[in-house]
């Protein structure tokens, strides 16, 4: 048997080596930057490679370390490769391998980040895990030499003591100094919590003695997360129109709110089971429900329906019968009717306004079933919450408003395209949208609605003013986005004063002179010359070229910063993705291209951190609640590095 195992082992190693050699041959075209994230596999043994792959699977799938000791798992591996017998390690040894691989990868990440062609932005947020450990998640975003946007988690540090801005600034400084990117940090993105403002003001001191190469400026570098601003504005609106309870803390912005989906909303459960103990046959009114609020009525109906399997079954039965009746009526009129897929009602979380959107949207979808439920002759618990036509009209209106705000949040939550250049336009659209709603007679006739919309607009204007006053980076990014350039500022004189745009334009010119001096000669495109005339009257190709303009003349010239900016702004705006446009035009505008690479790397939201924190909940599951802070840090950063490596392999 031992000889058979040896033969199997030799054959397996030979086959694997052949496959690996072929894989290496196919990897020759991979971007050279990728090698900075890969350890050298040439000198590794077969078992080293086996455990590297196993470690990656454990980390990426959030399996416990003890998985390697599981009898069934080992039996599965032995079935695939019997030669692995007697080569299994214990969970502690697997942990040591994870730490070793993660340490090597971190050194490679450091080498890679210090070699990227431009600057980068960081985003951070504090978070407490389910096992009560406080962490500071720090991400970085940049634009590669291929003009592609990238981001990754660069650290997940345990926070000791209070979550003060000074404490967090020191942690951020330690991380960027360790990675050698202190001089590459251009901006910091965070939500609008007060400790983040303190973080920004203390970061310069925490970074140590400034140098001419350092680009961090505390007075300009703080970028406020726009989805968080939208959250504050929408919550002000919802409080004003009594769509959420009066005591709701509107500042409580749940970390992954921007990533909250309809599927997530369907899994929301009530914090208590009060409705489960209420009698179906009684029509007692819940004193906590505002019967003047259509949203509060729907919230109560959803809580009751979701409080027991029997009530959920009753709702679905009514909805099914209604759909069958609608289909029969349509057939009798020779009309097509597509039956809805029966779904349960959604319950919102009052601090997540987008969950309210999903709750109202689902209620509108099954309005007939809700009306039937509230008119049920035997199950009277729903009767007090029957919605009138006026109530349903209000629900439809509010749902439409929330849909608009959700669209803005989704636009700012992208990770494949620049978002800071969208920020001012999103502000403009939202402010104008709310102002238009305020001016409608139907709104002006209802004081509470008018007051809610005014509070929403005031909140948007407050943070719009703060953002544009604090930093000219928004202006830089907007102008350097070839889809907008200066058109937004010309089209919105009420939001952007001439004085502000003139000051920002001057700052754009000055920073180009200071940081982006180009030794290259610029390519200037002249208009095409005269049309070609036919040379040989009997030559078709010669005749074909008559009337066809020649290529523009590409002339190498020396151009000032002012001329480069003027020529760029004089050209029409484009529909192209800004990174694609700069990839094709960087030779024509080398100084502006370098600046665009820096400023378009800044995200307009901290959604990247929210994604990390969402992953953290999976890493620290019930089966892994005993993990130490350092182990969690290693797992989170190693996992992020593996994902970055995969993305770069696809380039």
UniProtKB/TrEMBL annotation:
The keyword Protein biosynthesis does not apply. SUPFAM superfamilies: Ribonuclease H-like (SSF53098). It holds the Pfam family Dimer_Tnp_hAT. Coiled coil: none annotated. Keywords: Metal-binding, Nucleus, Zinc, Zinc-finger. GO terms for molecular function: protein dimerization activity; zinc ion binding. The keyword Nucleotide-binding does not apply. Its main location: nucleus. This is HAT C-terminal dimerisation domain-containing protein.
